[in-house]
């Protein structure tokens, strides 16, 4: 299925000069939503996955579904101050600023195989920070899945050494 027609551009969001890739048209179409989930699941092949990490906030859409279908646990990585328990944090750069991400300190056990999912790979700062968080807890990142990659921002450079799969590239 061609998912491109289900992604719309929103100019100057969240700030002037940024073209935001809006996935909500894909999400509201039941067939496109299901097929996108199936395609993301197919990226894992027959990998052993213990945990699927979803990145705040749009990574929370597909990651729980992937976890359920893989028989894995689902773990949230959130922006600073949003998780209620003891956390581990990592700061990062993104295309329109900086931020800090956190994960619960007990979310991943040493040696667990982890799939990271987010909606967009842009500059790679967010994904790189999530990989570092997983590794700080002793997990092994087996793959990073994305719905969209903005190739002109060269985010894949920050993920060298990690397996990456993407549905759509711009």
TrEMBL record:
Pfam families per UniProt: Pribosyltran
Keywords from the UniProt entry: Cytoplasm, Glycosyltransferase, Purine salvage, Transferase
Location(s), subcellular: Cytoplasm
Top-level enzyme category: transferase
Coiled coil: none
Catalytic activity: AMP + diphosphate = 5-phospho-alpha-D-ribose 1-diphosphate + adenine
Pathway(s) the chain acts in: Purine metabolism; AMP biosynthesis via salvage pathway; AMP from adenine: step 1/1
Domain of life: Bacteria
Domain called Phosphoribosyltransferase: residue spans: 45-148
Example GO molecular function: adenine phosphoribosyltransferase activity
E.C. number(s) listed in UniProt: 2.4.2.7
Family, similarity comment: Belongs to the purine/pyrimidine phosphoribosyltransferase family.
Subunit structure: Homodimer.
Function field: Catalyzes a salvage reaction resulting in the formation of AMP, that is energically less costly than de novo synthesis.
Protein name, entry field: Adenine phosphoribosyltransferase
Organism: Flagellimonas yonaguniensis
Gene (name only): apt
